[in-house]
């Protein structure tokens, strides 16, 4: 807590020094920074994902300060501040602020993008606002009135950012960087910003989800066995069907190789079984399109052997977005 208070004091002092040089601006939302906000980007040329997260906010009275993990793609935590519609990158080694973005610039405005060390290739690039009304489509959705900034880099010939696109209420949705093989684009595939999820969940009236199980009563026989073979344990076959009842295709986004999960709880709410426990999944964003009238069908067999007796609930749900699923109740009993 002491370090946070000291850091907050340093931030206040630093911003006060530049406040006199700033004009009053209306608050913009091109760079949201609430604790827990998260963005995932896909490299469209080489593959691979990069996740940016606001790990926490530092309370101040003059603006918004967030600790962002991996914003510049270097794996570092950076303290970034929104003050009068400008974004500053803070260098804790020197106590200096570097202005990275002017979020309320008019088309044609230019400024020098500054980044705290060690982003030498990006630091000093000339930034130019080329649009504030762009409509841009990325896997996370279609966004209007986007701010598009291009950069001229004179430091590194085959590196550095060429262009960035920011969507209102969402933040950075596209970044284009220079590379020896040509421009490399990173696009937003999924995000959670201010409690909103992107892509936006589909309307529940356009999607239906139905869970079916093969029985509502499962019997485990533990009577003594005559012979070498053990008795079979009861097994539940559960099937989740998700149908697109609209006239348009709906995209489902999964943040890993896991498509669904199944949870069984007893009547009091205690969890008895979770399908994903002990399983490993690839860490890659996936997008699956469900055409109009088509159905996703997932089936799994669950061994109920050894599970406590009683009335239980099984929930079978998608692990991506839109989040859909179903539930059913069943009875498990044992004879000895």
Short recap of the structure:
With 336 residues, this protein is mainly beta.
Give the helix proportion (percent range).
Answer: under 10%
Indicate the low-confidence ranges by residue numbers: 1-6, 8-27
* Percentage of residues in DSSP E strands: over 45%
Mean pLDDT: 84
General form: elongated
Distance between the termini: 58 Å
Structural class: mainly beta
Which class of the largest domain in CATH terms?
Answer: Mainly Beta
* CATH structural architecture of the largest domain: Beta Barrel
Q: How many structural domains are formed by the residues?
A: 2
Return Rg in Å.
26 Å
Largest sheet: number of strands, sense, barrel closure: 13 strands, antiparallel
Helix/strand layout:
Elements lengths: L1 H18 L18 E6 L5 E9 L6 E6 L7 E7 L2 E6 L4 E7 L7 E3 L13 E13 L2 E12 L8 E7 L3 E7 L6 E10 L2 E3 L8 E7 L3 E5 L13 E10 L5 E5 L5 E7 L4 E4 L11 E5 L4 E9 L6 E9 L6 E11 L1
Parallel strand pairs: 15-23
Antiparallel strand pairs: 1-2, 1-12, 2-3, 3-4, 4-5, 5-6, 7-8, 8-9, 9-10, 10-11, 11-12, 12-13, 14-16, 16-21, 17-20, 18-19, 18-22, 22-23
């Amino acid at each position: 807590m002491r370090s946070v208070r000291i850091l907050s004091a340093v931030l206040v002092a630093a911003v006060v020094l530049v406040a006199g040089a700033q004009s009053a601006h209306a608050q913009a939302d091109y760079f949201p920074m609430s604790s827990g906000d998260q963005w995932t980007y896909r490299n469209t040329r080489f593959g691979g994902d990069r996740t940016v997260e606001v790990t926490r906010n530092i309370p101040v009275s003059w603006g918004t300060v967030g600790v962002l993990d991996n914003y510049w793609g270097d794996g570092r935590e950076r303290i970034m501040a929104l003050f009068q519609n400008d974004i500053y990158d803070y260098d804790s080694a020197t106590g200096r602020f570097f202005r990275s973005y002017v979020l309320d610039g008019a088309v044609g405005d230019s400024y020098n993008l500054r980044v705290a060390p060690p982003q030498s290739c990006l630091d000093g690039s000339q930034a130019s606002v080329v649009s504030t009304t762009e409509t841009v489509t990325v896997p996370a959705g279609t966004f209007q009135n986007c701010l598009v900034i291009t950069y001229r880099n004179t430091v590194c010939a085959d590196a550095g950012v060429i262009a960035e696109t920011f969507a209102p209420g969402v933040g950075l949705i596209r970044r284009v960087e220079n590379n020896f093989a040509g421009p490399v684009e990173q696009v937003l595939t999924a995000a959670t910003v201010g409690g909103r999820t992107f892509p936006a969940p589909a309307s529940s009236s356009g999607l239906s989800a139905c869970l079916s199980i093969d029985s509502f009563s499962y019997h485990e026989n533990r009577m003594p066995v005559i012979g070498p073979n053990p008795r079979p344990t009861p097994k539940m076959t559960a099937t989740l069907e998700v149908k697109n009842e609209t006239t348009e295709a709906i995209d489902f986004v999964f943040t890993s190789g896991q498509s669904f999960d199944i949870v069984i709880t007893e009547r009091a709410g205690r969890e008895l079984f979770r399908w994903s426990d002990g399983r490993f999944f690839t860490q890659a964003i996936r997008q699956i399109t469900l055409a109009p009238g088509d159905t996703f069908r997932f089936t799994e067999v669950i061994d109920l052997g050894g599970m406590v007796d009683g009335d239980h609930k099984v929930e079978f749900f998608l692990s991506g977005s839109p989040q859909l699923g179903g539930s059913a109740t069943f009875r498990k009993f044992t004879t000895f």
